Amino acid sequence: MPSNISCDVLIVGAGPAGSMTAKWAAKNGAHVIMIEKRQEIGSPVRCGEGISKMWLPNVGITPSDRWINVEVEGARIYSPSEKVFEINERDAGNEVGYVIERDAFDKALAIDAANAGTEIRLKTHAVNVLKENGKVVGVRAKSFGEQYDIHAKVVIGADGFESQVGRWAGISTNLQLKDMDSCLQYRMTNVDSDVRYCDFYLGTVAPGGYVWVFPKGDGVANVGIGVQVSKLKNPAEVKGYLDRWIDHHPGYAKGKKIDMVAGAVSISPPLKQTVADGVMLVGDAARMIDPITGGGISTACQAGKIAGEVAARAVKEGNSSAARLMEYDRGWRVLFEEKQYRNWLAKEKLVDLPDDVFDKVIEVISGVKLEKLNVLNILKAVKLKYPELTREFEKFL
Questions:
Q1: Does CATH number 3.30.700.30 belong to domain 4-46+104-176+271-345?
Q2: In 3D, which of 163, 46, 166, 27 has the Cα closest to residue 106?
Q3: What is the full DSSP assignment across 116-162?
Q4: Residues whose CB is less than 8 angstroms from the CB of residue 114 and which lie 6 or more positions away in sequence, other chains included
Q5: How far is CA 385 from CA 53, 202, 241, in A?
Q6: Which CATH architecture has domain 72-97+177-266?
Q7: Considering just the CA atoms, what is the radius of gyration of the chain in Å?
Q8: Mean pLDDT in each 10-residue stretch from start to end of the chain (397 residues)?
Q9: What is the DSSP code (8-state) at residue 269?
Q10: Which of 62, 116, 155, 265 is the most exposed place for a label (fewest CB within 10 A)?
């Protein structure tokens, strides 16, 4: 293994954020290396596997049968008493539209990055960043037991929820327990899921989160749960919540579990800082997760495109200072910072709502036509019938 490697842009992590950043940096003329600690991109899957359609053309993703399981019509949102609200996929949000095979999706994005000119190094992880005069100038990597340095003009931290790159670079990515969900998901067969809908169940069945059912066709579905970490006494409680929900729903209780994944997701406000001298953070590493839904594929890919383009321009200009890279920070914030922050504020209130209030909210929105399913429109609708329920939310209205 060579002792010194150099490139223009080095990306740590080959998930959607990393591959999208790599693709657009390479397409804009940068020499790009992307490293991935796992031996297989996309595996193990840690995702509900639902995405919307509308943003895909904006980042150059062409839908493909290679990674699409089911194209759904919309979403069904269930209150604690299982009153149901249906909404079409166009208005449902960023987790509804296609149910995908996430490992195949991630591999497809990596193929696009490779075809654009990116060099991908598997089973290679960063053990620290390299700095000169306080500026990040690369990473120390380890592959097959050997350490070596990769020097780069710009380093991109796309290393997920447990991101180390940001911390090493001096960017605060710390989370409070109330800003994390603990998640567990089964892939189940022989279940009665409706392939027309992604289903979401609210209330004390999943404190501070929700239960989801994403159909994958042929009697197979992802059945999962997210619970706010601050509401758990121990991690095993998450499994207990999900198992009880399944036991109380005959269409799923008769099913068989064929896969299980677990992990954590941030449900935090936007980071105050996503760039420093020589480095940018993108995707889960930058906490670009919707605090209401816990979804982040769309935001990761959209921010990744901006990061790749900005990195390539910075390299051409010979300037990778924090001030230059702020073009990226401003770009992603224009796209979705306001929504992320508003949803975090709403999450702070919604997690403590009793079940009877959730029932009233679903009752109200089931009886009105919402132009778009978002926090603001829901609160406006609820205020018309139950103004007392929205007093704590006046800042949103």
A1: no
A2: 46
A3: TT-EEESSEEEEEEEEETTEEEEEEEEETTEEEEEEEEEEEE---TT
A4: 120
A5: 33, 20, 32
A6: 2-Layer Sandwich (3.30)
A7: 21
A8: 82 97 98 96 81 95 96 94 89 86 96 98 97 97 95 97 94 93 96 96 94 96 96 92 98 97 93 97 96 92 98 98 98 95 86 87 78 70 74 62
A9: P
A10: 62
